[in-house]
Recover the amino acids of this structure.
């Protein structure tokens, strides 16, 4: 990729200057070290790496099985296994190569106070941005319970906003009735950006034993199976965001350059890649290539000019059946 190609991929996300619109997603890259041993992998192919969800105290996570492959996707219920925010800030962040890409912390909590405290700890660290996960389906308290209630979502965002001046990204749940209304409330509460979407709740059953496969009984569905839902949710959230210049990191099932382009056209300023990394760790350099080729073919100078350029049909009724 030459300098002109790289220039076309340059992306601004709420004050962060990124070398590509691609973001490696939380939970799919550990604490940034997961793929660096893979030959050909480079942090320089992505605009940012989002670290594993972090809580106030260390968590062991859920009992096995924690992951299960499904048609065109996977279920996971890791249960936010992590060493706690003190360990992450003291031991892990100093090892991260901040000269290669941007790093985003991913914050979870069981109470509003815990979200505040963990965000405050990251505020006093070299991390580039903070993502708050109010949409984790795999923990009993907090997580999706906050994300599906607009009042609670707003309270968490307000608290985290008080805790930091760093870019604040709110990760929205697709498991809710009106994602656009929730986004509006989070903007009023002070979020700088959104991550859309987290996983959808699902279940796998073993008919012989009549038991659930996942230790946690239910888990979050990710991968290509959820892409059409994710595209619609990005489109819906973008209708609110564009008036406020609040950017979206679109995600959910991205497994090719074409997928990434679809998210950008739907309204995403940046695009997350998660599950696809499990079977294709070198996918990001190819996605970058596809994006640049597309921009050239369509005479578009930069990714940002494509954001939200979706052309809608005018159906006679809102009914999709
Ligand atoms: C194994 C696994 C662990 C995850 N852990 C987290 C997490 O800790 N925090 C979070 O916000 N999202 C987590 N996610 C959700 C992803 O970041 C992403 O939003 C979701 O998987 C959709 O993107 P994808 O289909 O490209 O994987 C996890 C996903 C997977 C597959």
């Amino acid at each position: 990729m030459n300098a002109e190609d790289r220039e076309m991929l340059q992306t601004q996300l709420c004050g962060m200057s990124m070398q590509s619109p691609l973001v490696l997603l939380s939970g799919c890259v550990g604490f940034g070290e997961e793929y660096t041993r893979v030959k050909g992998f480079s942090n320089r192919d992505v605009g940012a790496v989002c670290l594993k969800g972090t809580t106030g105290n260390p968590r062991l996570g859920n009992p096995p099985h924690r992951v299960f492959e499904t048609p065109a996707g996977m279920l996971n219920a890791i249960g936010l296994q992590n060493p706690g925010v003190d360990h992450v800030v003291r031991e892990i962040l100093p090892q991260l190569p901040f000269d290669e890409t941007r790093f985003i912390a991913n914050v979870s909590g069981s109470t509003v106070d815990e979200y505040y405290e963990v965000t405050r700890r990251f505020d006093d660290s070299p991390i580039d941005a903070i993502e708050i996960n109010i949409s984790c389906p795999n923990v009993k308290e907090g997580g999706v319970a906050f994300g599906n209630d607009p009042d609670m979502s707003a309270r968490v965002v307000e608290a985290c906003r008080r805790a930091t001046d760093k870019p604040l990204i709110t990760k929205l749940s697709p498991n809710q009735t009106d994602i656009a209304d929730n986004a509006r409330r989070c903007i009023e509460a002070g979020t700088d950006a959104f991550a859309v979407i987290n996983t959808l709740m699902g279940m796998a059953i073993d008919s012989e034993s009549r038991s659930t496969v996942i230790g946690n009984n239910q888990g979050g569905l990710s991968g290509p199976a959820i892409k059409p839902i994710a595209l619609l949710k990005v489109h819906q959230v973008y209708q609110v965001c564009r008036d406020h210049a609040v950017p979206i990191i679109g995600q959910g099932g991205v497994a090719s350059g074409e997928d990434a382009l679809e998210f950008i056209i739907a309204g995403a300023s940046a695009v997350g890649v998660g599950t696809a990394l499990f079977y294709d760790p070198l996918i990001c350099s190819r996605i970058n290539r596809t994006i640049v080729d597309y921009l050239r073919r369509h005479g578009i100078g930069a990714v940002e000019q494509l954001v939200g350029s979706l052309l809608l049909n005018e159906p006679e009724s809102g009914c999709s059946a």
